[in-house]
Write a structure and sequence with these properties.
There is one protein chain. The chain has 74 residues and is mainly β. It is built from no helices and 3 strands. The chain has a 3-stranded antiparallel beta sheet with strand order 1-2-3, with no helix packed on it. β2 and β3 form a beta hairpin. The chain is flat.
Length: 74
Amino acid sequence: MQVPAEAWLYADALREGATLQEWTRHLPSYDATLTLLHATAFIEARHDYEDPDDGELDPKEFSLERNRWPSKKG
């Protein structure tokens, strides 16, 4: 189903008329609902922002070779 992108995302960052494909399935065994969103076209109105955390990711940080693991302490 095609939905307006601003139903899910902040409207000020979207192109006018931007849409997303949305698939939603109820998972009764889990008492949950799963929604998948897919942008079939470029939907951002602006992309001049800079993400300070936009460095390259280390693949080892997502494997058993990881050196530091997050703690469960709050």
